């Protein structure tokens, strides 16, 4: 397994992608350590907790990619493949949230405060991860005539998708505009993640009510993913890809709905 991993590492060309994703993971772990210190988790338990974060993230990212972006009857990657591609950022982040929630419950830590302090790390991971996707040329967008659209390079993934493959099956394509520019959806998401990161840091500094930072960020980020889904190309036909917008909508609805309920309850307490 180690030899296979080394071979894939040596054949990997875009090191900026790898470095940015590693940096995002380190920031995610760093804010997890801060959350542990803020909630007075002992060093031993903190070490165990943060050690599992990268594994949980990779498992969730690969699992969601398999379920949503590839045909399960003929997958391009498998769950345990030692390959540096075939991951879903949203799936990794979602799995870390589930893991963090379980860890807080088992450690008898207030869940909302715990999740709030994880948000800057999660958004840092999203910001750097999507920046890496842009440099790597993956997760690209649909054609556009807007002036901020970017040209895809010859032999890039977008070039192969839109030029080499597209004209072989014009009737099956979903986009309406043919152009040499595409939406930089990776930068759209990266920019919004950065805004949400600074918003979270500001709200944490202002000591917003427990759960406010997490629920608001989770809702807005999921709505962002839902909107960008319409602007992103889907090179592979996922078995359950049609369920992805519903997943975004459900998570956004639950997050913002619970946040609204918490705000209403606090106002009722203030007025009584």
Question: Can you describe this structure?
Answer:
The structure is a single chain. The chain is mostly helical. It has one domain. The protein is built from ten helices and two strands; from the N terminus they run H-H-H-H-H-H-E-H-E-H-H-H. It has helices spanning 2-11, 15-38, 43-69, 89-106, 111-116, 119-136, 157-165, 185-205, 212-229, 244-271; strands at 150-151, 181-182. Helix 2 packs across helix 3. The radius of gyration is 20 Å and the shape is globular.
List keywords for this structure.
272 residues; disordered N terminus; globular; two-stranded antiparallel sheet; single chain; mainly alpha
Distance between the termini: 63 Å
Number of DSSP strand runs:
2
Structural class: mainly alpha
Number of domains: 1
Element-level helix/strand string: HHHHHHEHEHHH
| Average pLDDT number | 86
Helix tally equals 10
Q: How big a fraction of the residues is strand?
A: under 5%
Poorly predicted regions: 1-11
> Given the C-alpha coordinates, what overall shape results?
globular
How many strands, which pairing sense, and closed or not: the largest β-sheet?
Answer: 2 strands, antiparallel
Helix-residue proportion: 55-70%
Strand order of the largest sheet: 1-2
Radius of gyration, CA atoms, in whole angstroms? 20 Å
């Amino acid at each position: 397994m180690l030899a296979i991993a080394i071979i894939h590492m040596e054949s990997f060309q875009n090191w900026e992608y790898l470095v940015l994703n590693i940096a995002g993971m380190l920031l995610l772990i760093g804010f997890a350590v801060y959350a542990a210190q803020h909630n007075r988790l002992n060093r031993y338990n903190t070490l165990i907790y943060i050690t599992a974060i990268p594994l949980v993230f990779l498992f969730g990212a690969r699992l969601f990619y398999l379920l949503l972006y590839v045909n399960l009857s003929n997958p391009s990657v498998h769950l345990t493949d030692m390959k540096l591609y075939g991951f879903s950022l949203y799936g990794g982040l979602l799995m870390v949230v589930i893991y963090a929630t379980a860890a807080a419950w088992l450690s008898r830590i207030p869940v909302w405060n715990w999740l709030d302090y994880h948000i800057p790390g999660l958004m840092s991971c999203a910001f750097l991860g999507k920046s890496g996707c842009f440099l790597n040329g993956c997760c690209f967008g649909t054609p556009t005539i807007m002036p901020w659209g970017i040209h895809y390079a010859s032999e890039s993934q977008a070039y192969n998708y839109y030029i080499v493959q597209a004209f072989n099956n014009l009737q099956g394509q979903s986009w309406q505009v043919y152009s040499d520019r595409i939406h930089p959806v990776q930068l759209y998401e990266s920019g919004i993640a950065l805004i949400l990161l600074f918003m979270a840091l500001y709200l944490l500094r202002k000591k917003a009510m427990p759960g406010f930072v997490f629920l608001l960020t989770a809702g807005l980020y999921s709505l962002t993913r839902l909107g960008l889904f319409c602007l992103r190309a889907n090179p592979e036909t996922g078995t359950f890809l049609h369920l992805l917008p519903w997943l975004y909508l459900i998570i956004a609805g639950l997050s913002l709905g619970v946040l609204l309920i918490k705000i209403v309850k606090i106002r009722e307490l203030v007025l009584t």
